[in-house]
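Troubleshooting: if your tokenizer reports a length mismatch, compare your output against this known-good record of 104 residues.
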Amino acid sequence: MQIIYDQKAKDYIRDKNFTDIYIWPVYNGGMCLGLKNIRLEIRDKAKDDRFFIRDWFDGINTNYDPSINQFKRSSIEIQITAFGIGGLRKLVTKTEFTSMNLSE
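Known-good structure output:
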């Protein structure tokens, strides 16, 4: 698995002086419809980082939840960019994960 930061994300991380990036999945869906999609939460802090896998991508210390490894089949690359205006800017993923492409 490869995590790729585009230039907007790199500039945002450098401007905010983030030393670590934490990524974990948030599963969305209804009870009767099953799992619809997976959103990746990307932050500069985590409450408990003991279970995160530490790695180095594009010169950025990246810590990710081990359950993200299940996405390898649907997408080898996870692309991250910065989105928003001013103080509302945050890191988001360009790569979309759904239950449809996880079962392939």
